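Supplementary Text 2. Reproducibility record for the structural model of the 265-residue chain.

All settings were left at their defaults, and a single model was retained for analysis rather than an ensemble. We include the record here because the model underlies the residue-level annotations in Supplementary Table 4.
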Amino acid sequence: MSDTGRGTSPDFIEALARGLDVLRAFRSGTPSMTLSEVATLTGLARPTVRRILITLETLGYVRSAGRDYALTPRVLDLGMAYVDSLSMWEVARPHMEKLVERTGESTSLAQLDGSDIIYVARVAVPKIVTLAVTIGTRFPAPATSMGKVLLAALPPAAVAAVLAEPSRSGITPRRSPADLEAALREVRAKGWALADQDLAPGIRSIATGVRDGTGTVIAAVNVTVHAAETSVETLTDDYLPELLRTAADISHDWSLTAAIPSVTA
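Retained model, structure tokens:
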């Protein structure tokens, strides 16, 4: 994971980059690790990892129990600071809640981060699904409906550069470049995307873009269903109109919010 010397600017702080490498090493499959395990995952030297873990523990982002280290809830502050700074959740939540009431299915909002999507808002219904999704969850963009919407919104020449970045989701996309290119052309023509068990068996979703006042896609919103319970026809005939309405409402409110002048006390 470590990429020492990755920054070419004289202002690049390698110690900070290494600290972030250590934080990112803790994932759902590795919630608790020893110093040696963290060093192996990050590729950093044990003394370096030890100093970083002690620093993070002192700051309250990591806790230790015996030889093991684990993240604390304080780490959530780092991610939620981004969401709060955009007011995205505050704007989207009432519309997403109404969408869930009308469809009885979960809905999420995501943005593009390299070749992944990362979830920034979610309203879920209590159903057992094969994939656990929370705020901050990331998946490879080509395998998701929201990812295809966000990729399709990019200039075609920029898509290859974005996809050249390795996914940090731990999941390898199965779609070929030719298939993805055809899918993105279809999304650009229709304005929405379907993912039929592309990411995991039994999971279907449909998504469309959320736009700012200039018409630029800034996020994607979806409806996710069980394939065994909900057909593609139900998704496109019944849920898609509701989703498009929700996206338009979020876009409208977001444009109004962004247009309000900020006042500094």
